[in-house]
Amino acid sequence: MNPQEALALLPQWKHAVLVYTGSDGYPMSVATSFQAGIDSVELAAVSAGPEEPPDGEAQLLFSSIRPYPGVGYDQRRYLELTGTLTKGETWRFVPRKARGWDENTLPFPELCERAVRQANRYLAQLSAERGKRVTPEMSAGWKLFVATRAPFLTATLVPVALGVCVAAYQHHFNLGLVLLTLIGAIAVHLGLNVANDYFDARSGADGQNMTPTMFSGGSRVIQYGLVSQRQMLMLSLAFYAIAIVCGLALVALTGPGLLWLGVAGLFVSWFYTAPPLQLVHRGLGELAVALGFGPIMVLGAYYVQTGHYALLPGLLSIPVAILVMLILYANEIPDRLADALAGKRTLVVRLAPKQVVAAYAVAAGIAYASLVAVVVAGIAPWPVLFALLTIPLAVQVVRGLARTYDRPYDIMPYLQSNVLLHLATGSLLSAGILAARLIP
Amino acid sequence: MGAMPDDVADLLDKALVCELTVIDNRGRLHTDPLIPLWDGSRILMTSSILFSRKLERIKANPKVSVSLSDPVGIPREPFLRATIQGDARVLDGDLHRDWYRRTFDLWVEKEPVVRKLLRFRFALPLFWERSVIEIEPRRVIRWRDGDTARRPDVFELETAS
User: What CA dihedral angle connects A179, A182, A184 and A185, to 10 degrees?
Assistant: First the structure.
């Protein structure tokens, strides 16, 4: 901020604090009233006690909060002007430098994110002073929870449940195989999440993101110094190893037909952010996620139960695939500036804001239309249409995304609704299939 | 030589905000708004490592001033203004726990939402890695009715050191 811009802001404040250094080396501060001019500030003379303010280097600090009973306060803002004080008939302060913060223009979470480098610098200084590494603390359980982004596992639970429910509708159900399928699918998903953080840290996409939210910008455990890049890579490989063991066990138990699907799933998952393919950098990440968390998981879960592939689970995986793709797609909205800087050319980076929202609406419309089509075609039973009950939620998300597109913290409730949309639609779809078995 | 005047101690107890000024190693002034906490003998503040430049400066030069000036941020009647000069030190032995032991009860009295936010510390972990700034007051300058055009009362305080 330059001093002229700062002077224009002064009418927001009722008083200033004049700060200077006393001859004893202590800073001295005294409140005063003021009148902002074009290039200077006129101050009311003050009586400062032991030592009056001298002509010369000084500061003016403007600060305010709004007390908020039961909470503390809000509406925080301050402005620090550094410059020169000249006392004559009137006291005049000419600013040379300005810095400040207003939480209405720079939200507190973003302010914190911009300060991460300073925090890491301070930790490095403490480490050097003490001769041992000083790092932020978090319990191992919380670190694992945060690093894996475990709450997003609904993206896996929904397609696996759908595949299992379609199989159950056709009188195939084996609980042991369901559990093994779930463990394998969850391991792939967590491996993907952790690998994504590792590769985004290496490419700089997460490091440059100053507006991460609960839904976007990665888990931040690397940027915050909670987990090293190497630890994240090892964790990711461990999850993939679990997934491979589960997959091979399922192939052995159910047949070789699962193998190619499992290989495709692992391929898409790893190369989502990993070089050389980096599908998400090429505008193919959305398609990769749709395939992986749609047909691959639904058909895989179905195959494990039945030992064969079929048209019905494949067609029912379409709306689930589209809606899970839309989770990623909407979550890319607050990330788009950092993604663009890192060369991560997601669809949201490539499209104009209006196009992004319109494409969301069209894709959601196709998801619902595909459901109606499979019922009209007589392929799926009519109770799967229960899933259409979520259309109002989809409309709410579209409107919310359009309204809050440029406000990363205000968009969060709609990103949450978007996750809920996938979960609710997928759950109603599964429930509809199961209900069709009970309803004659 | 005396103790902290009762009305200034009360001002510290009531204040939701003060202005802390520190001097860097090139003699430049830096002022930040912070919540002052009064433990009966020292002024305490807590700062996240995210905003740790002031901590580096205090370590280089402990001479600080604390201004209590904002009638909105200090809901006390009758209002008065004060500036306290003193020597600060940074307590950052255990960034995860020391601030909690030393300042949490006093902090939460002024900002009750902190208790709730702390439950979600995993969401903003670096914010909750914190140091304590402990200020030993040396001199208090008090403007009884808040009017700084009038001559203030000056108190030189006894210090432990």
Answer: 170
ipTM greater than cut 0.90: yes
Domain range summary for chain A, segments of one domain joined by +: 3-105, 106-135, 140-438
Residues B88-120 as b/e (b if ≥16 CB within 10 A, e otherwise) read bebbbeebeebbbebbbebbeebeeebeeeeee
Put simply, the answer to whether A59 touches B31 (Cβ < 8 Å) is yes
* Residue of B24, B56, B65 to mutate, testing the A interface (most A Cβ within 10 Å of its Cβ): B65
- The reported pLDDT for the residue numbered A168 is 96
Residue B78 preceded by cis peptide, ω within 30: yes
A140-438 CATH, one of 1.25.40, 1.10.600, 3.10.450, 1.20.1070: 1.10.600
Q: Do B67 and A59 touch (CB under 8 A)?
A: no
pLDDT along chain A (440 residues), means of 10: 92 94 96 94 92 94 93 94 94 96 94 96 96 95 96 97 97 97 98 96 90 91 96 98 98 95 96 93 94 98 97 98 98 93 92 97 98 97 97 98 96 97 98 88
Contact list in A for residue B46 (CB cut-off 8 A) is none
- The reported pLDDT for the residue numbered A25 is 96
Residue linked to tokens 């807590």? B46
Whether pTM > 0.80 for this model: the answer is: yes
Of B51, B63, B112, Cβ closest to residue A26: B63
Q: What is the pLDDT of residues B57-90, one digit of tens each?
A: 999 999 999 999 999 999 999 999 999 999 999 9
| Total domains present in chain B | 1
CB B26 within 8 A of CB B97: no
| Minimum distance, in Å, between the CA of residue B83 and any CA atom of chain A | 6
Among the partner residues B16, B124, B152, nearest to A67 by beta-carbon distance: B16
Tokens describing residue B59? 């370590």
The answer as to whether B123 is a domain residue is yes
Tell me if B161 is assigned to some domain: no
Which H/E stretch holds residue B20? strand B18-23
A334 burial via Cβ count (<10 Å: 0-12, 13-18, 19+):
buried
Mutate to test the interface with B, among A14, A17, A66 (most CBs of B within 10 A): A17
